[in-house]
Specification:
The protein is α+β, with helices and mostly antiparallel strands. The chain contains 4 helices and 3 strands.
Length: about 80
């Protein structure tokens, strides 16, 4: 993934009106995609946009919508 596709978790939290700790918790739960790079957490831009689109919904379907690569599950619908 290109680095311009990644958003530092603190910046994502500001954009989304939440805390970096909440986002980190969701990453650790597997609900939100995230990557640890050089000791700092980053979120893929598409995951930030999906999180925003679903109003910060942390239910399991957000995980599928934010990280799903399957076309058969229907979550992209």
């Amino acid at each position: 993934m290109k680095t311009n596709d990644l958003v530092p978790i603190h910046d994502a939290a500001r954009e989304l009106g939440t805390t970096h700790l909440r986002l980190l918790m969701l990453v650790k739960q597997g609900t939100l995609a995230g990557e640890l790079c050089d000791g700092e957490w980053f979120l893929p831009r598409h995951a930030v946009e999906q999180f925003r689109a679903f109003g910060g919904d942390s239910r399991a379907d957000l995980a599928c919508r934010a990280t799903c690569k399957a076309s058969s599950c229907g979550c992209k619908g």
